[in-house]
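We treat protein structure as text, and this decision shapes the records that our systems exchange. Because each token names a local backbone shape, the row as a whole describes the fold. For reference, a complete record is included directly beneath this paragraph.
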Amino acid sequence: MKPIRHCLFIAAVLFALPLQAQEFEPIEKRMSADAFKAAGLDKLSAAELASLNAWLHASAPSQAALEAAREQGRQEVVQKNRGFLTFGSDEPIESRLQGEFRGFARNREYTLENGQVWQQTDDSSLYGVRLQNPEVRIRPGALGAWWLRVGNNAVQAKVKRVK
């Protein structure tokens, strides 16, 4: 559910950017007449209203700040969703497994210390291994496949991200 929420957030930001890039619109034009009156802004003098509009215009985020925030949000979504299908970068994921590693087995789940959970999808096996919090490397392969290697072992298992 979280990937959908992040995508919706990015879509909202991308939709709002053209609106922010437009010329500054005074508050009396942005609000309906009823809302303007209900807020008590109709009681301001012309000079006070001009001062309020100047303050609102000066405190509006710059285009550079909006672009920086947009890029930061995009990077956050990419990092959080790496491993789901082909989303994110092609760089390997290097982390540690939480707890004890006792070899490979089909459908076994492996939890990384960064919170990601990966499930083995092939029949690769590695017996007689007991490692505590070993280093792992998960690299992307062809056609959206991901491969998990634990420590310095030559055997690797095909995995998919489940969380």
Notes: Residues 94 and 137 are 5 Å apart (CA to CA). The helical segments are 2-21, 27-30, 33-38, 46-59, 63-80. The longest strand covers residues 135-140. Residues 2-21 form the longest helix (20 residues).
